[in-house]
Write a structure and sequence with these properties.
The chain is mostly helical. It is about 60% helix and about 0% strand. The chain folds into 2 domains: about 70 residues, Orthogonal Bundle (434 Repressor (Amino-terminal Domain)), CATH 1.10.260.40; about 170 residues, Orthogonal Bundle (Tetracycline Repressor, domain 2).
């Protein structure tokens, strides 16, 4: 063929399949064209059957739509992979076993979902493909599609599990507190501990919300807002009770939540500081941000000062002497 593009037989009608999948993915003509490296007019012509499409171009479009090329044409043209099943239209439903919020048992994550987590952490959502996920899972691409209709479904399931696991832990931690200040500290400790113990899930949650389709984004963003609201509510209760003194409590609450979610950017398991130590430290940091003075006020349960590596730093000692 000497590199000359070979048009796909018109009978396979790939243009219609491209349009249907593009619409289902919520991708605009311009967006697909940018991913493939052609003009929007070219994609429009392909979808409307006004121009032929080469095998190479077909593969590029299939990659952009996160489907096997065989799903756009007859199997005999590009391989033996079947078309993916219809895209799910319902939200993922996740039910998790609960218990001690400080213990992190394995989650109900199947091999395909585990492979997607590895792929998204390694290359990002947009850098991963169903083929690369299949490679991580050590199975065929059709095998992956048998379990999940699309890459978006995998991301949604990952984030649903993440939020469900985080929510019950924060609620259990809060309920352990015997006074308002203790409840704030425990919520922050649980938030920090989650972001060190579930670091891969937390990383995806922090970096890939933007990759969600609008309907999924709105729903999962509400879960994320609920986390902030839980923390803000406990901070407000502690301020009302006289245990904390801060002028801009909502700004402080956002700063504390961001401080915890940023742990995935630098915390390394297996280092000199354990997740449990850093979580208790972050609880103390949060109370200081909120104007709590653990030296001058009666100590709440679980609020004893915690020092990295079991020893006070020079700045800690100087701070005590100044007081």
């Amino acid at each position: 063929m000497n590199g000359v593009p070979v048009p796909v037989a018109a009978a396979s009608n790939p243009g219609t399949a491209v349009r249907q999948l593009r619409t289902a993915r919520g991708i605009s003509l311009r967006g697909l064209a940018a991913q493939v490296g052609v003009s929007p007019a070219t994609i429009s012509a392909i979808e409307n059957g006004k121009t032929g499409i080469s095998i190479q171009r077909l593969q590029q479009i299939a990659t952009a739509l996160a489907v096997p090329a065989a799903s756009l044409v007859g199997d005999s043209l590009v391989g033996d992979s079947p078309a993916p099943p219809p895209r799910s239209t319902t939200a993922s439903s996740v039910s998790l076993a609960t218990g001690n919020w400080r213990e992190f048992a394995p989650l109900p994550i199947d091999p395909v979902l585990a492979a997607a987590i590895k792929a998204f952490v390694a290359t990002g959502y947009h850098g991963a493909s169903m083929r690369s996920i299949a490679q991580f899972a050590n199975m065929s691409v059709p095998g992956v599609y048998h379990h999940y209709p699309s890459k978006q479904d995998l991301l949604v399931k990952i984030l649903d599990i993440t939020m469900a696991d985080l929510h019950w832990r924060l609620q259990r931690a809060r309920d352990e507190g015997n006074d308002p200040v203790a409840r704030v500290a425990l919520v922050v400790e649980a938030l920090a501990l989650f972001h060190t113990r579930r670091s891969d899930l937390s990383f995806i949650g922090a970096s890939e919300m933007r990759s969600l389709e609008p309907r999924h984004y709105r729903r999962i963003a509400r879960f994320r807002d609920d986390v902030q609201e839980l923390l803000d509510t406990e901070i407000a209760a502690a301020i009302t009770a006289g245990g904390l003194a801060v002028n801009h409590r909502r700004d402080a609450g956002k700063a504390i939540a961001t401080m915890c979610t940023a742990l995935v950017q630098w915390f390394q398991p297996g280092g000199r500081i354990t997740p449990e130590q850093i979580a208790k430290e972050y609880a103390q940091f949060a109370l200081r941000i909120l104007g709590y003075n653990a030296i001058r006020q009666p100590r709440s349960r679980g609020l004893a000062p915690v020092h990295l590596a079991g020893a006070a730093t020079a700045s800690d000692r100087a701070d005590r002497q100044a007081r």
